[in-house]
What we know:
This protein is mainly β. The chain has one domain (about 5-135): Lipocalin (Beta Barrel), CATH 2.40.128. About 0% of the residues lie in helices and about 45% in strands. It has a 4-stranded antiparallel beta sheet, with no helix packed on it. A 4-stranded antiparallel beta sheet has the order 7-8-9-10, with no helix packed on it. Strands 11-12-13-14 form a 4-stranded antiparallel beta sheet, with no helix packed on it.
Amino acid sequence: MFRCILDVENGALWPLQVIATRLTTVPSMSRDDELAAEELSFVGFNQDATSLALGAASSYALYSIKKTDKLDLIHESYRQFSDDKKKNVEVCEIMLIERLFSSSLLMLVSTQAPRKLRIYHFQKNNEICAQSYTNTVLAVRLNRDYMVVCLEDIVYIHTVKDMKHVCEVYFNFQ
Length: 174
């Protein structure tokens, strides 16, 4: 399996086959520090490929990739709990992160709740809403108007503006 080390201090990616990444900015880690590493569970781009999303067991991070020689940290989040349930976005085993262009809206799915899609505003640090589905969320795609959520046997389409359900498409490949 191809893995990489993210040196956040220098903003560089090094391809390695030994360990994955640690999504923290401090302390920086050496390439040989396997105990400090955290395995990536998700890597993806936003729609216009101006930001990179990385997800792991206890954290996720967003980086600007407008410059080819350096990654700039936009946002990072760690497992966090709050008395306010709206602000309690538990970061656990992120399996999917989608960002709406360069906005502050994130769509998050974890392996602990693979049927639950969380819509999160990272600058305000609050969950806007959460949508539960009958099966595991396999993919989410966004444009300025619609959010498409793909499950194993059905695709749901919602409006981004108010997350209202527009329609669904059923699959039967037998």
